[in-house]
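Re: your question from the hallway

Yes, I did run it. Sequences:
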Amino acid sequence: MDVALAVKGLQSVKIKGSSNPQLTVSSDTPDELCKSLGISAKWVSNAFKDSILFDPCMRKLVNESCGTFLSGQKLSQNLDSGGDHGPELLKLSRRYRSIIRVCLNDLYELIDKTGQNGVNQNCCYYVNVLDKIELIWHLCEILYVDVVPGDIVLPQLLEWIRFHFPQAERKAANLLETGAERVEAGFETAGSEKDPEYWKTVVGVLIQGRIDATRALLFLHSDARATAFQQADICLRTMPLYHIYGGTSPTVFNAQWIRWQADVRSKVEDGVFASNADLELVMKIVSGDVTVVDAIRSHCQEWYQLMTATLFFTEPTVKSFDLSYHADHAMRAFGRSNDIQDLDKLILLLLEANLLEVIQELQKTADNGWFAVHLTNLLYLCGRLNIFDSNKVDVAHQLHEHVLLDYGTMLMAHHSLWQVGVSYLDHCPPQGLERMEVLLSATPLISETRALKIMQIAHERRLGSVVTTVCKVMAFKSLHQERLGNALAWALRSMDANLTNHLADRFLEGFSDKGEFEATDLLNNLGSCMLASDRLTFLGKYCEFHKLYKDGNLKTAGTLLVSLLSSHLPPKNFQLILLMQTVPLLEARDLIFSANETHILLSCLEALEAELLPQVDPHSVSRPLDAPTKEKIQVIRLSLARNLSRAIIIEGSDIPNTNTRMVNVS
Amino acid sequence: MFEAHSINAEHKDLIHDVAYDYYGQRMATCSSDQSVKVWDQDDQKNWNLSANWKAHSGSVWKVTWAHPEFGQVLATCSFDRTAAIWEEIIGETPPQGERSLKTWIRRTNLVDSRTSVTDVKFGPKSLGLQLATCSTDGVVRIYEAPDVMNLSQWTLQYEINCKLPCSCLTWNHSFSRLHPPMIAVGSDDPSPSNGSKVAIYEYSENSRRWAKTESLASIGVTEPVHDIAFAPNLGRSYHLLAIATKDVRIVTLGPPTEGSSQRFDVQLTAQPEDNLSGTVWRVSWNILGTILASSGDDGCVRLWKANYMNSWKCISILRGDGTQAKSDTSVTNMPTMGQIAAPNQSSTTRYYKLGSITNPNQVQKGLAPIPISKWQPIGRFQRMTWIGSDFTSYGSPPPLEKSAKALCGKT
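Structure:
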């Protein structure tokens, strides 16, 4: 018997298995927590400050699982095209599980770091929840994702038990190591039975199906050379083990198995192992003796451990559809049937293949449906979700979408996880998009960055209404803060004519009060945006006029002004201001307005005056024709007249326009 | 499952209505003391009074926010026979660290009603800025602001005579252009002989008129209706209408069946078999139209949600004192509803923070002799998802507590 090999095997298990030295610690602490759960109000306030998923240390879980979910969705597009996607789906399931494990490890580190104080309690609670989730997920994977030919699941179930109850194997590895050292050191036998845990460990690894480890441990007994032990070793060595890909069919294997067990039983009955009571118990277990169930039970922490253990020695080729019967049996034998907890219930339901209820139960777990949504999604992808309503219509699709919607909506409600929620809602058409439309526009616009992000997401999904709403709300916000330039920038993005009109008016108002524009950089670079509304077009053009005027480009400025006045774009109360601004141009040394243009200006003035005269309506913005206005009109009229005369003289003479300028300049 | 926070609103009389803004970050309360108060939530999620003014010369029945794309706008209606539009205006920025009160000015006063105006609601923003009011003389009025930038100009577009005294109205916020504008009106007329207390009016583009298209006679709502609310319609082919009468009812208005002369195929989808809540005073949807909150005479707020098979069930019960009803832990010395309703209690606004709601947007007025409460449809729910199991078999629904116990109970 190669001890070293057995040690090696165990070490590899140790690495693979949940190597959580704190597992025992953590399962103690939540226990206290649990006690306080039912009654303590403190718990409620702790837990609901933000639920488990929203704790910063669970961030990784949310984000990573979202990535896996998305790759699952990508995979689902290929699913319809046929072919075997089992391995890929299995990989997906493993990825989810490894995400949980990574998260668990992080939590352990956190617990280590913080020591035994307040923060710790929450972490321990998270650890406990995640650990259970992983346990259930693993079972799901075995039963529904990683489907083996022949439906013989016991080897995998044993693996599952080993993975989640690694104490016995860990102890065995420990014993084997010290035993090997002693043998190396020259002792005749390792004498490991002096360790008080020795027999407990032997039975522990035996009922988890680790025959090689059992043998290795027995070999370390001081009496290992005695006949009883030699016989036991032979029995265990010859034990037929079922391998799915071993080449033997279940029927052949069963025949071998029955023959071998009869052999063992007869040996037990002959008293071959009677010299050592503990060894005899071990062999009785191996022979499938029903009288030792109690002994096995004392080595199990949970009823499902008992189930796999008894199955291993009585019906190793059990099919998965028989499991619910055995589960029931094991539960009764374990004495737990009166005190079923949610976890037991979940495992039972899984074994019964009652997936609908499994999902219903999962929705009630403390992880905000994280588990329910991802598991449902995975099972849906695997095509294992066959749920029928009373009319025998498959409603799996509805259920899947419902769960996705709930989870996505829940995430979107969170102030920083909302973007993750978008990815989930993306995958539940058509309702997802509609919900997104509502939820996106109801996301508080706490900053410009947030607003831009929402706009981008909405834009990618062609949710034009959301973009418009966001822009308008942002524009109103800026307007409220008197940031006109910013408001205009947002209003332009919303393409809302009403709003831009109003803002343009505000700009003009500001100009007539202060004589200068706010946010000139924006106004000077409006470009084609100025076409959003009439008033804005005017504002843009008017700014252009000011720029030209400042640059000394009087001729172009003049033409622009005339075209503005004749276009009916300017608001009524602004026409007089515009006309006043023609005065310096009219009085310029150069002739700027032609006779024709002067005529146009004159007619504008006439029209304005005619409008101002019957002014009795007090609500109108323009003032009644008071003295200053009258004076202004007179000034303009005079300038116009003088300009007209100049223009007629110059245009009437033969001198071409270019020459006039040269003459004037000289 | 939830925490209750109290705000001492310091209203000097009954609080009649509480309304959240679109984002759930602001809250407006109105009271019989004729005043309206606006509350803003700060980063620590505390509610601070930001404005307080005398709005009417009578009890203010209802207060409601316009969509934020029209600015910060409130509408109120009152016993003084008027409805009013209020806008927050830019005040001087306060010095650092000081919280100044914001100024709201009355943009317009709608004085067309000759009796108490009982409800006021802004229409869907796709219709521009429209406002519907209803009054005890049975007239529904629909106003419109032709220029949304000028809130001082409102024109009375339509008057609909409902014949029965109106108590409440609701717009159907549908996202589909195929649905014409729709309003449901409820009446609190106490006499059952006056027929159905709910009427549905639709606007016809062709005749440019509002016409009554359904009275829910087949459902037989003959008791007084206290509140009514359409669920936001996110692409459903049918409309969902919640009615608060002697119990909660959820009615679907589907497209008519083939060959039927009815405008809608009306179905009662939910009505609790055991009416534990007594008379229901208010109903309110979350923004997705997936969860309904109702408040009843027993001082509890109940949350209703449909499962994936579209059957409605109560998913949670919140007691007026902030404890979870039905929970074993609630037997501590918490004041009962009656104690809260005692007249010597100060005017208090209560709101609940559900573990499942981002914004503490659950409000109940604890002081009213008749406990009325309002749950503004902003709720974005995080927990309490429920997919159709029968809760009675598990006892009370709080999911976390139970599963936590189960998950931790194993060592």
